[in-house]
Write a structure and sequence with these properties.
The chain starts with 6 loop residues before the first helix and ends with a helix. Strand 1 (167-168) and strand 2 form a beta hairpin. The longest helix is centred in the first third of the chain and has 18 residues, at 7-24. The chain has 12 helices and 2 strands. The protein has helices at 7-24, 27-33, 39-54, 60-67, 71-78, 82-91, 100-115, 121-135, 138-147, 156-163, 173-177, 187-199, and strands at residues 167-168, 171-172. The protein is 67% helix and 2% strand. It is an all-alpha fold. The chain has 2 domains: 7-115, no CATH class; 121-199, no CATH class. Helix 8 packs antiparallel against helix 9. The chain has a two-stranded antiparallel sheet.
Length: 200
Amino acid sequence: MVLEPKGTDLEATVLRVFLKVIDLVGGPKALAEKKRLTWAGSLMTAAYVVVLAQEALKGEEAIARELGLSSAAVRQILRADPDAALKRVSEMGEGEAIRTHIAGGLAKAAYRLIRQGQEEPRVLRFFLERFVEVMGIPWAVLTLKAVKGLDFPADKAALLERLKGLKIQDIPAEELLERLEYPVQNPADLLHQIRLHLEA
């Protein structure tokens, strides 16, 4: 029996794929400079299609209905060649519109990289820092500041060097680090593991 991922898990994965696609095409600044900001909608749609197919195991027709797309558009996205799409993007001119199969190939490439643990740490760190500030989670803010610039995946020794002396909800960071699973993949994984042990 296949358990369908929760909607919030799918949304989070879609966002991660979308951010990785933006990274693959050179980042937000490159999109603006090359007059490609209109690509955002197509790239987000392609990210949704790929995640629904890979994570929720939905077929072309079901995805088309859910997203209000034609079956042909969904098919083009799912059958796109990631390597050909990456090559084509590098050849495209300023202001040139993105085609469905190119967006699909980029989304598939981004999904593959995320599954291999290759997310853009700067982007992930930026969103994490803003999120924990908005949510008012002081221990998370302090933890993120302490590990800023640290290369991930990180082992216990590297994290201990950065977090030594820090108290997380009155628990020494050293004590919490003894309980984590290593290597810690990224800052989000670090916060997630710490939170699980704080709630245990």
